[in-house]
Amino acid sequence: MNSNHKGAKSLGALILAAGEGTRMESSIPKVLHHVGGRPMLFYTLRLANALKPNAIGIVVGHEAEAVKAAVNAMAKDCGINRPIQFIHQKKQTGSGNAVMESVPFLKKFKTAAVMCGDSPLLTYESLYALVQSHDDQKGQVTLLTAKLANPKGYGRIVRSPLGEVQRIVEESVGSSKELSITEINSGAYCFEVESLLTGLKEIGAKGPKKEHFLTDILELMRAKGGKVNAYVSQIPEEVLGVNSRVQLSTAERIMNRRLLERLMLSGVTVLDPASTHVDADVEVGQDSVIYPSTILRGKTKIGKLCQVGPFCYLEDAVIGNECEVRISQIINARLLEKTLVGPFSNIRPESVIGPRAKIGNFTEVKASRIGFGTKVNHLSYIGDAEIKEDVNIGAGTITCNYDGKAKHKTTIEAKAFIGSNVNLIAPVKIGRGAKVAAGSTVTEDVPDEALAIARARQVIKQ
């Protein structure tokens, strides 16, 4: 790919993201619906940036401000530093009109890669090959096509007997012979900008909505002796667009399969891919095992030699090496190495647990630090607490951290022993090596090595 053409900026990338997506039946702009935990537009933006264009143009229209804000956030998150220019399509009257609105942006470049913001499955390999093929074949336009077993809903590629691309026929106007064609248009193109600008001036409006279709330019180019080429994708599923929730679920399933395959090829065991779901930013270390019915969301990072699942939900969690998590939920929290969680534990945000700690069945931890080797085994609530190393928390222990107006802190020093069914009324501190008797309600600090008994004397009446 010639990225520094003499005398002209070589490549501009244009993403079409103005559509309302009426078939999605949603108040959310179509390109901001999620696939793999990221907006669909995220994947196209990342691909466009990977082509190393001189600038990226994004056509916005429906809910333009929301789309702009999302793009800026995604660009910052991905470290995209090249210029991004927003182009406002005032009326959503077809892809041709969207590109017409982009003329001031496009005319700065010799070549333009044009793609749709609702194509999250498109791969860099194919997009790069499309631009490379365009450079090699010296035509006016090269389009990315694919051969689908079921081409319904897509424009068909009509070729001459010699195999040259003649035109694209939309399904609504195709003859039965044309509709039997299985090669379809993906909506990704590489244009010579000079020819594109000439063609844009000549395409007319069609249909009841007076729409301008970008595909009409191909016939105009050919009529003037131009060359229209196609690069056929080797991965047909990548051209699947998303126009409905049904197609969104199809894209999600394909994306999830790809993400799981990437993990497995990097040395992760996924016992049942059909019941396992991961987001695009999830990382899992070598020799970890993911058990069935596990969901890994957001920017979850799992270390090496871990065992996660079955029936786990992790979101933005950071899990150290050699941890085990069983039938539990962890959100925006961190486990240090060799920590065990579950079954039926709920680890809430801002918690840091371990190393070598144990959080057991039906225990909830919120915004707390649990130290080395500490055990909170059963039926406890630990909130806004700092628990040091080698502490034993008995079953049914509660840190009473909320007084109705504010949260208060509980501190338990190293090697303390908290008996079962204890209420710790924060703010309170339990000293190093101290013991709290079962059934106590503690309202005052307990000194180091002391025994606290805070319960009423048993009275038996007959």
Structural class: alpha/beta
Q: Could you say how many structural domains there are in total?
A: 2
Overall geometry comes to: elongated
CATH level 1 class label of the largest domain? Alpha Beta
CATH architecture assignment of the largest domain: Alpha-Beta Complex
CATH topology type of the largest domain: Spore Coat Polysaccharide Biosynthesis Protein SpsA, Chain A
From the alpha carbons, calculate the radius of gyration and give it in angstroms: 30 Å
Q: List how many beta strands DSSP finds.
A: 41
On the 0 to 100 scale, the average pLDDT is 94
Residue runs with pLDDT of under 50 for 5 or more positions = 1-8
> CA-to-CA gap between the ends?
95 Å
Count of alpha/pi helices: 9
Care to describe what's here?
The protein is elongated. α1 packs across α2 and α7 packs across α8. The protein has nine helices and 41 strands. The strands form seven sheets. It has an eleven-stranded parallel sheet, covered by helices on one side. It has a nine-stranded parallel sheet with strand order 14-17-20-23-26-29-32-35-38, with no helix packed on it. It is 20% helix and 29% strand. The protein is an alpha/beta fold and 462 residues long. It folds into two domains: 231 residues, Spore Coat Polysaccharide Biosynthesis Protein SpsA, Chain A; 208 residues, UDP N-Acetylglucosamine Acyltransferase, domain 1 (3 Solenoid), CATH 2.160.10.
